[in-house]
Design goal:
This protein has 358 residues and is an alpha/beta fold. It has 13 helices and twelve strands. It has three domains: 2-43, no CATH class; 59-144 and 289-322, Rossmann fold; 166-286 and 326-347, Rossmann fold, CATH 3.40.50. Helix content is 39%, strand content 14%. The strands form two sheets. The protein has a six-stranded parallel sheet with strand order 2-1-3-4-5-11, with helices on one face. Helix 9 links the parallel strand 6 and strand 7. Helix 8 runs parallel beside helix 9 (195-211) and helix 10 crosses helix 11 (246-255). One of its GO terms (molecular function) is DNA binding. Residues 1-54 form the HTH lacI-type domain. Residues 346-358 have a biased composition (Polar residues).
């Protein structure tokens, strides 16, 4: 706002407070420019910050693009929040969860009053799958301190994040299946352009290229449709993206007399979004969600100046990727019909359902 008005931040503060120190004079023209900038940006003065005379509130915000609290035991954000809370205790700051924006079509937005509300906190963590790129760019342009929990690319690498290394973990999962003799390995997941999906697809494609195998991307429908597609393709192993419920898919496969893992090995590419806890120990990998939340809050604290940076130069690492944990599980085994699958690979052409994500 100060840049928009062409004045110093101190001048903005004087206009907002209505008080000027002895010897300081602000012309009516300057005052008008500041007030015009306030109207344009929708700025709302932060009374707490004003009382602290420019210091920090010791409050860090948390904003999630989706509903945060679980229903029916389906808790995906819980570990993130646990890590964030633990880090806040260590640093000595309070947390403020922004929940006033309604969830519309699965997503919250920061527009309208959201920008002003963020000003209550010194900085904010952002979580979720359905972020608005324009909103993130606005935060960058206004130099508001924030950290995204999850890898996000941005022009010039300006956007700070702490994410999970989906690409490396997915590559390892696919290569594990290859090492056991699987030759028809499919990726089952939505074809979207969000960063986690792109990273998982990239890791899968890298492993298939290394192993000299064809990629087989399957966009899931309902569980019955997905199971039928897997059967048509003759897959011996499937990598499931988090939006696919493995228990529902397993039931649909059993209706086609396809057993897991005897006929189809299954690996989960992270924790499913909507899975109820069950007895099956699924193979694949899990995300370091609690660690991601804690590291993200530490990074945000460094950006707002309430905590020293980790390195000696005092410059925090704005782009942090954490390793996922491989899970052996019980749903990855060598294919029972390895010879049949190998022959199918040598003789088959690419079916219409396959889409190479080159």
């Amino acid at each position: 706002m100060a840049a928009l008005a062409g004045v110093s931040q101190a001048t903005v503060s004087f206009v907002l407070s209505g008080r000027t120190p002895s010897g300081v004079r602000i012309s009516e023209e300057t005052r008008k420019r500041v007030l015009d900038a306030i109207r344009i940006t929708g700025y709302s003065a932060n009374p707490v910050a004003q009382r602290l005379a420019g210091g920090h509130n010791q409050i860090l915000g948390v904003f999630t693009y989706e509903a945060t609290f679980p229903r029916g035991g389906r808790d995906f954000y819980g570990p993130f929040l646990a890590g964030i809370e633990h880090a806040a205790e260590q640093i000595g700051v309070d947390l403020l969860l922004f929940t006033s924006a309604r969830v519309v079509e699965g997503s919250r937005k920061l527009t309208r009053s959201g920008w002003q509300r963020l000003g209550i906190a010194d900085g904010c963590l952002l979580l979720g799958q359905h972020e608005e790129r324009a909103e993130l760019q606005h935060l960058l342009d206004t130099n508001y301190p924030f950290v995204f929990v999850g890898r996000r690319e941005s022009e010039g690498g300006r956007l700070p994040f702490v994410g999970a290394d989906y690409r490396s973990a997915t590559r390892r999962a696919a290569l594990r299946a290859c090492s056991l003799g699987h030759r028809r390995i499919g990726y089952i997941g939505a074809s979207t352009r969000d960063q986690p999906t792109l990273d998982r697809m990239s890791g899968y494609q890298a492993a298939m290229t290394e192993s000299g195998l064809a990629t087989q991307f399957v966009v899931p429908g309902d569980a019955t449709q997905t199971a039928a597609t897997i059967a048509d393709l003759g897959l011996s192993a499937a990598l499931l993206a988090p939006e696919v419920d493995p228990d529902e898919l397993r039931l649909a496969l059993s209706a086609l007399r396809i057993r897991v893992p005897e006929d189809l090995s299954v690996l989960l590419l992270g924790q499913p979004h909507h899975q109820q806890p069950g007895p099956t120990r699924w193979s694949g990998f899990t995300l370091p969600r609690e660690q991601m939340g804690a590291r993200a809050l530490h990074l945000l604290s460094q950006l707002v100046g309430t905590e020293a940076a980790d390195d000696q130069q005092g410059t925090p690492d704005l782009h942090q990727l954490l390793e996922c944990t491989d899970v052996p599980g019980e749903t990855l085994t060598p294919p029972e019909n390895a010879d049949r699958h190998e022959a199918a690979v040598r003789s088959s052409t690419v079916p219409p359902q396959e889409r190479n994500n080159a």
